[in-house]
Amino acid sequence: MASEKTEAAMKLIEKLNRTADKIRKVQAKYVFEKKLTAPQFAVLEILSRTGPVPLKRISDEMMVTGANITCVVDNLEKEGFVRRVHSKEDRRVILGELTPEGRKKVEGILPEYMEKLASLTSGLTESEQKQLIALLDKLTV
């Protein structure tokens, strides 16, 4: 028989999973309409936020394998959105970098994308959102 503590934990995990699934579905649907996959858009978003970055760091941030990032970046290169460049500090390190076409693509998508995501949290006040962030931070430490 599960204790009240474990039942509450299981209910919390179920709610977190359902919430994450809902967010992923909204994200995937929107970027699919823009002729990208969710991982492709994630790479473009990371590169637009950070500038040129090692592919390893992208895979770590997205929590996927290096092989997965290689495939995603290959496809983005074919579309002309990303290019690979060698690091000036260590030529063994390969950086992903947005092309002008890639920057234009992500900048054309990002504002509406952010609005769609913000609408998912519109049921919470700003204070509640900050509180939820603080609570989730406690789980991810």
TrEMBL record:
Record-linked SUPFAM superfamilies: Winged helix' DNA-binding domain
Segment forming the signal sequence: none
GO biological process: response to stress
SMART domains xrefs: HTH_MARR
Residue stretches making up the HTH marR-type domain: 9-141
Domain of life the protein comes from: Bacteria
MF terms (GO), sorted A to Z: DNA-binding transcription factor activity
The protein, known as: MarR family transcriptional regulator
Native species: Melioribacter roseus (strain DSM 23840 / JCM 17771 / VKM B-2668 / P3M-2)
